[in-house]
Amino acid sequence: MKTGRLLSLNTALARPVSINGRRVKTAIAKQPVDGERGVFTLGIEGDEQADLSVHGGVGKAVYAYPSEHYAFWQTVRAQAKVALWDEPLAFGSIGENLTLEGVTEIDLWIGDVLQFPGCELAVSEPRIPCFKLNAALGFAHAARLMTQSGWCGAYLAVRSPGTIAAGQPFTLRPGPREVGIVELFRARSGRATVA
Q: Distance between CA 55 and CA 59 in Å, rounded?
């Protein structure tokens, strides 16, 4: 079994913002939080999802993203001239609740379980990026780069409610291993190849 660590626990409340002259409600601007938080069937204590047609609900209660991809996003933001080359990108910037270390999309299959000390979360589906990611990262092609790279992260369903905190270890327990996150992302995004 594979193991990893929760580097950052991130939450945000939904708020109205203007993106390309359009007024939308979003909670993509996640911020790291300290201490233990409750994990419930529909998400993490203190977190919201603004557009329940594409986020949230039982199957997409929590969003996890690998920390291993953060160097890439920091570099492309500098290339797009929206950040300095040495300016760190804060965890939560991709809109994730859980910034994970030790697993990437290639390791995740639908039905796998991330077992934390105080809760269990089941891998349910990949994230398909939208225009809000472009706004969150500050440049127009972020969603396209996520689609091209296949570095989409994964939505998680709450299998066993409880608590969670940054710094905690987790174990990846394999599920049926029939459909992988990368494979499903490729099919849903129409990508012939994903890195």
A: 9
Tokens encoding 103: 């697993």
Q: Which of 102, 9, 17 is nearest to 62 (CA)?
A: 9
- Angle at 94 (CA atoms; ends 166, 154), nearest 5 degrees: 75
Residue spans per domain, the chain: 2-189
What tokens does 59 get? Answer: 């199957």
Reported in sequence order, the residue ranges of 58-151 that DSSP labels E, i.e. its strands, are: 62-66, 98-101, 113-115, 120-126
CA distance 162 to 117: 9
CATH homologous superfamily of 2-189 equals PK beta-barrel domain-like (2.40.33.20)
Q: If you search the block for the tokens 């127009």, which residue do you land on? A: 140
pLDDT per residue as tens digits for the range 40-67:
999 999 999 988 877 889 999 999 999 9
The reported pLDDT for the residue numbered 54 is 79
